Amino acid sequence: MTSRNYTGPLVDVSFDGAICQHSEECMKGMPLVFDVSARPWINPSRAETSELASELRTVVGRCPSGALQIHDHQDSARVAAEQS
Ligand code: SF4
């Protein structure tokens, strides 16, 4: 498992670079959060309103490979456990 978790105020995003197809749907869909010129390149903290969090869910849902996943905060402990 090569997935890494990125934490935001409302939702977290995990990314598995091993299965990413580099279609750039994420960067085109929500450059506010997905910016390869920034570190980290995924920044869910910018989705700080419920509207932006909803938009983030939609964009992550368009990821064709499943490399991106949304995690509600109640799931974060499970994700962390899976990564350890
Ligand atoms: S949308 Fe998914 S498959 Fe496409 S670049 Fe982003 S993470 Fe990779």
Short description:
The chain has 84 residues and is of the alpha+beta class. Helices cover 30% and strands 18% of the residues. A hairpin with a 4-residue loop joins strand 1 (3-6) and strand 2 (11-16).
Report on this structure.
- With 84 residues, the chain is of the alpha+beta class.
- It has a single domain, classed as 2-Layer Sandwich (Alpha-Beta Plaits).
- It is 30% helix and 18% strand.
- It is built from three helices and three strands; from the N terminus they run E-E-H-H-E-H.
- It has helices at 25-29, 50-61, 76-83, and strands spanning 3-6, 11-16, 68-72.
- Strands 1-2-3 form a three-stranded antiparallel beta sheet, with helices on both faces.
- The longest helix has 12 residues, at 50-61.
- The radius of gyration is 12 Å and the shape is globular.
- The termini are close together.
- The structure holds iron/sulfur cluster.
- Iron/sulfur cluster binds at residues 20-26, 63-65, 67-68.
- Iron/sulfur cluster (SF4) binds next to helix 1.
Descriptive labels:
single chain, 84 residues, alpha+beta, Alpha-Beta Plaits, 3-stranded antiparallel sheet, 3 helices, globular
Distance between the termini: 10 Å
Radius of gyration over all CA atoms, rounded: 12 Å
Specify the CATH architecture: 2-Layer Sandwich
What's the CATH C level? Alpha Beta
Please outline the helices and strands:
Blueprint: E1 3-6, E2 11-16, H1 25-29, H2 50-61, E3 68-72, H3 76-83
Antiparallel strand pairs: 1-2, 2-3
The structure holds iron/sulfur cluster.
Iron/sulfur cluster binds at residues 20-26, 63-65, 67-68.
